[in-house]
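Recall from the previous chapter that SMILES is a line notation for molecules. Here it describes flavin-adenine dinucleotide.
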Amino acid sequence: MSDSTNKTFCAGYQGREALEQLQQESATPIVVKFVAPHCPSCETLAPVLEQLVTDHLGKIHLVAIDLTEEPELAMELGVRSAPTVVLFQGTAVLERIAGLKPKKLYSEAIQKAL
Amino acid sequence: MRVENLVIIGSGPAGYTAAIYAGRAQLQPLVFEGFAAGGVPGGQLMTTTEVENFPGFPESITGPKLMHRMRQQALRWGARCITDDVVAVDFQPCPFQIASAEEMVRACAVIICTGATAKRLHLPGEERFWGNGISACAICDGASPLFQDGEVAVVGGGDSAAEEALHLTKYARKVHLLVRRDRLRASKTMQERLLPCQQIQIHWQCLPLSAHGDEVLRQVRVQNVLTGNVSELSVNGLFYAIGHTPNTQLFQGQLTLDRAGYIQTQGKSTATNIPGVWAAGDVQDRHYRQSGDGGGNWLHGSPRSRTLVSRTTIAGNSSSSINHDLSTNTKLFPLSQAWERGAEGGVRAGFMVLKAGFDITKETEPCQIRLTRLFVLDTKEEKL
Ligand SMILES: Cc1cc2nc3c(=O)[nH]c(=O)nc-3n(C[C@H](O)[C@H](O)[C@H](O)COP(=O)(O)OP(=O)(O)OC[C@H]3O[C@@H](n4cnc5c(N)ncnc54)[C@H](O)[C@@H]3O)c2cc1C
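With both inputs in hand, we obtain:
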């Protein structure tokens, strides 16, 4: 459990607009985490993703999206539950990890994208 | 590899309570909080809203807040937490070996508090729609856009089912509650909230048979257990609230489990069949399965650990003289075994480091000592 209950939303960027802007302007892979309010697994995952982004500083972006605020985007991307991590290169989806999975899976997916 | 005094596996109410007690006894416990294997860190209460029966919170407290506070309390007393799943244990060697995905440690004693995970029905179609409409946690998944203004079903007749159904009314237009029997197992308080709710329709003596849909769940076939009639329910969500299975796969073949998979403990104690390994909380308690109990249940274990500590206090008196001989003469035993062997009379126990200002006359005050290792010497071999 993370020390801060607010960690769920403590990513570098937030929301659909931020994602779309990054997709247009940056060639760096983007990790999007879809979260929801009161989602304990989202809170558990938060520090893991933050650590991975810190480990690869400048080589990867992290965007948090609340799926209750962006239901259309979530449906479009086939996101049905929180947390779901979608890894983008531009607008292309490289990987989708639904649910809380062993930490290794996230680091491997990010490694592959770099 | 460092040898830990005590490793606690799991971070629900039982795990953190054990950590608080052990921390206060200066054992510096190492807690594997879990990650994804058997529920999230913080345990089952992370998936609930209000906890109304935990003493000390007359206005009730949310599950996540309560668990956050328990964690803070454990940290305050020196527990060290690793947010990771334990993937293998070996209770044969002394000290025991415990491996997580990232770390391997040895420990003189282990307390297992891995709790339980929600049961699944394994219906035809369930695998396909798991996470795409089927879930075992309404609190976690209820907010998904899949269920907005739609119809959903909840399976179960206990408190969890009632709570899930009520919670889902925030998102879904209608909630069908499928109850196997002709009455609810839920507490009276819960029934009083559930029954008047217009958005909830109860289907008595009804069971789901299979799940159907395209990309996502669209229908569930249900059967009336009395008449055998099969019908279809158009729902986007199916939530299970049908009880729990203990998280004990890890310990199969090493600890004695009962037929349902719960860890068997001796009498009313928390001792397992392996000396030095204890189990507390839902993982060994199939009857009550309540957080207050999971926490309180460790109290059964605590006087024992305190005795252990005060006993080593006496033994500690001679530790300065036996210290340098330890490498050749010592046999390492897990704490409880040391205790039992000590009781047989043939063995003396000692430990390595005493805090400055140690006062043997105050042996019942565990916080005076800092127990870093427990060694057991066979007196016959002891050359003192
Ligand atoms: C929806 C719901 C509502 C509830 N409401 C109440 C209530 O209002 N009042 C009440 O008294 N009780 C309530 N309960 C019951 C209560 O939650 C449990 O009795 C209590 O959580 C049991 O505590 P525990 O510590 O034994 O196990 P759990 O809470 O199940 O915790 C198990 C811990 O072990 C960890 N774990 C599992 N496997 C591993 C592994 N391999 N390695 C490392 N860690 C692992 C998990 O991550 C978790 O941290 C509720 C339960 C549910 C599901």
